[in-house]
Amino acid sequence: MDPLTRTDPPHEDHPEPAASPVSSATDDRGTTGTTATDTGDGFQLLHPVAATLWRIGSVATALIVGGGATGIAFAVAGVEVVPLCLAAVTVVWTVFGWWFPQQRYRHWSYRIGDAALELRRGVWFRTSAAVPFHRIQQIDVEQGPIQRRSGVVTLRLRTAAAMSEGTVPHLASDEADGVRARLLEAARVSRLIDDGH
């Protein structure tokens, strides 16, 4: 059975994380991070820096693409309708790119369930996915340069189905080690049970 994915109707927003369940941890690079916060239903939010990293990418894309197109239009056509429209679109795109990542963060969560890793995400269209433990073959730890400076990593699950995988982005490095170990152990036990041991 391949990992299951379904689109759910909109549900209630996660409540704002309370300050008390959040703890700080210092890794071997001296980076202080915040561990995941329970949403109240057993699901864990990502590291809070996820919103910042997504925001950097969104705003940078808006300024580079939109600003570049606007600059070229002004250089070619001068102060005309098209360049002004492009400038307005760039401003709106930038504002949206600043606002949306925080909403994305609030609606991205995961839970290690009884038989699968469960993922929830989506702001307007909510998606729930499950990666069964017995299908997990390996778990890769990925970390780009900006993630490294922020003390977070991405876990990428490789499953028995060639095109199927699950991804948990922007987890605190020390927390990701624990999550990876738990998932690998759950996968091992699940396969032993399936084999009749």
TrEMBL record:
UniProt-listed InterPro entries: YdbS-like_PH (IPR005182)
Region (Disordered): 1-39
TM segment ranges: 53-75, 81-101
Tagged with keyword Membrane: yes
UniProt keyword Membrane, yes or no: yes
Keywords: Membrane, Transmembrane, Transmembrane helix
YdbS-like PH domain: residues covered: 105-182
PANTHER family referenced in this protein's UniProt entry, alphabetically: UPF0699 TRANSMEMBRANE PROTEIN YDBS, UPF0699 TRANSMEMBRANE PROTEIN YDBT
Protein name: Unannotated protein
